Amino acid sequence: MPHIIVKLYAGRSEQQKTRLAEEISKAVMTVLRLDADSISVAIEDVTPKDWADKVYKPDILGSHGKLYKKPGYSPPT
């Protein structure tokens, strides 16, 4: 716990995905005070043509109550 799933446009390198997973893990360890062994990160490539049906509609529009960072919105710092 926790398991994080990142869905993004296909085309990122394995090096970028690995670094992203590492940085997400570091942030989770810091904020939630967890050991690295407790965290898993999956990355799912999605083609731009599939984004609306496979990500935007089900995971963004259909989950507003669960979104802590909405697209196009940056909370004040």
Low-pLDDT regions: none
Helix content percent band: 25-40%
Q: What is the chain-wise order of helices and strands? A: EHEH
Looking at CATH, which topology of the domain at 3-48 would you report?
A: Macrophage Migration Inhibitory Factor
The CATH superfamily of the domain at 3-48 is: Macrophage Migration Inhibitory Factor
Largest sheet: 2 strands, parallel
What's the β-strand tally?
Answer: 2
Per CATH, the architecture of the domain at 3-48 is 2-Layer Sandwich
Structural class: alpha+beta
Strand order of the largest sheet: 1-2
Q: What radius of gyration results from the CA coordinates?
A: 14 Å
Mean pLDDT: 93
Please indicate the percent range of residues in DSSP E strands (runs of 2 or more).
15-25%
Number of helical segments?
2
How is this structure best described in words?
- It is a single chain.
- This protein is α+β, with helices and mostly antiparallel strands.
- The protein has a domain at 3-48: Macrophage Migration Inhibitory Factor, CATH 3.30.429.
- The chain contains 2 helices and 2 strands, in the order βαβα.
- Strands 1-2 form a two-stranded parallel ribbon.
- Helix 1 links the parallel strand 1 (3-9) and strand 2 (40-46).
Q: Summed up, what is this model?
A:
This protein has two helices and two strands, in the order E-H-E-H.
